[in-house]
DNA sequence: GGAATTTAGTTTCAATTGCAACCATTTTAG
DNA sequence: CTAAAATGGTTGCAATTGAAACTAAATTCC
């Protein structure tokens, strides 16, 4: 047992495997969106959330996208400049902006969602429905384990 | 079914969940290594592989660390400058360097491995042994699905 | 044997990111 | 009511990263 304790087989190390898997998937999706629509991962996360919850504020996006406020600020600025997102000053709280998709943003959003779902299906293509449920439940347990790391 | 097709619930979207999970885990580990030993994720991956396979070349590291050669170059340069890594010119091929840990690097390596394993155990703490096997086999299947994405 | 190609690794420059400081507004507390 | 603290969001600067170009050595192919 001596050997096993002080070596580490990187390709069996779960954090490493998660990282490689996650990066492969994210990069593939990002490549597709980037090429077709000029969207980064950050931008498309923001679009996904604003599309689903119109009139969110930037602060509300931080929790729903797992991005920090600097990243939100930059992503929203770029999306606005690309014409995909509109900001409207909030009169109740003049620090806030209410964010929503423009016409064009909506159109992109409608195209993006099926592509995203397609990637997810591709990822799960070899899993039977029960296995997909199982995988998601294991994910859920991992997520709750690390939630306050 | 109309609604479900054109919205996307980000927090249920597997690529997003993988990304958040992986980043949380990696950042926690990186924080620990960074604080104690001045190691980035890249540096510690390199150390892990060089520790296990002494006298690797940089090119050999690229496949074993899932890092590109620029990242390897920078990580090895920094590790050398920190005194953790030695490069030795290879006489058979003068473009190559044979990489190995210094005394000090070995010492750090021996401290690092248990910490890494500890994080992995913590991640898997709520899983029974059979569940851990199951999780790894599901991971394996996801990995082979995306291997050529 | 020598020109053309490939491979190992580094460097450069631009783009991205992370952190702290910042401004403006709103909320809290005395 | 006002000073202090907290919140929403942006900016500036340094560090990190990515892509392409580069040097040097090795290999291929005629």
Task: Characterise this structure.
The structure is a homodimer of 149-residue chains. Chain A has 149 residues and is mainly alpha-helical. Chain A has a single domain, classed as Winged helix-like DNA-binding domain superfamily/Winged helix DNA-binding domain (Arc Repressor Mutant, subunit A, Orthogonal Bundle). The first copy, chain A, has seven helices and two strands, in the order H-H-H-H-H-E-E-H-H. In chain A, strand 1 (85-89) and strand 2 form a beta hairpin. In chain A, helix 2 runs antiparallel to helix 6 (103-123). Chain A is globular, with a radius of gyration of 19 Å. The model of chain A has no long low-confidence stretch (mean pLDDT 94). Chains A and B meet through helix 2, helix 3, helix 6 and helix 7 of A and helix 2, helix 3, helix 6 and helix 7 of B. The structure holds a DNA duplex (30 and 30 nucleotides). Chains A, B: It comes from Alginatibacterium sediminis. Chains A, B: Residues 11-144 form the HTH marR-type domain. Chains A, B: This is MarR family transcriptional regulator.
What order do the helices and strands come in, and which of them pair?
Two copies of one chain form a homodimer.
Chain A: H1 2-6, H2 14-37, H3 41-52, H4 58-65, H5 69-81, E1 85-89, E2 97-101, H6 103-123, H7 129-146
Antiparallel strand pairs in A: 1-2
Helix pairs in contact in A: 2-6, 3-5, 3-6, 4-5
Chain A binds a DNA duplex (30 and 30 nucleotides) through helix 5.
Domain HTH marR-type (chains A, B): 11-144
Organism (chains A, B): Alginatibacterium sediminis
GO molecular function, one term (chains A, B): DNA binding
């Amino acid at each position: 047992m001596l050997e096993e304790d002080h070596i580490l087989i990187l390709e069996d190390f779960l954090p490493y495997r998660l990282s490689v898997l996650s990066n492969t998937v994210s990069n593939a999706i990002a490549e597709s969106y980037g090429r077709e629509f000029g969207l980064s991962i950050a931008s498309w996360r923001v679009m996904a959330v604003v599309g689903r919850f119109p009139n969110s504020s930037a602060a509300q996006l931080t929790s729903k996208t797992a991005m920090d406020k600097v990243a939100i600020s930059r992503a929203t600025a770029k999306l606005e400049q690309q014409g995909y997102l509109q900001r409207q000053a909030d009169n109740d709280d003049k620090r806030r902006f209410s964010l929503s998709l423009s016409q064009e943003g909506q159109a992109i959003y409608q195209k993006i969602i099926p592509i995203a779902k397609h990637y997810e299906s591709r990822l799960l293509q070899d899993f039977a429905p029960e296995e997909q449920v199982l995988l998601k439940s294991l994910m859920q347990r991992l997520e709750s384990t690390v939630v306050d790391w």
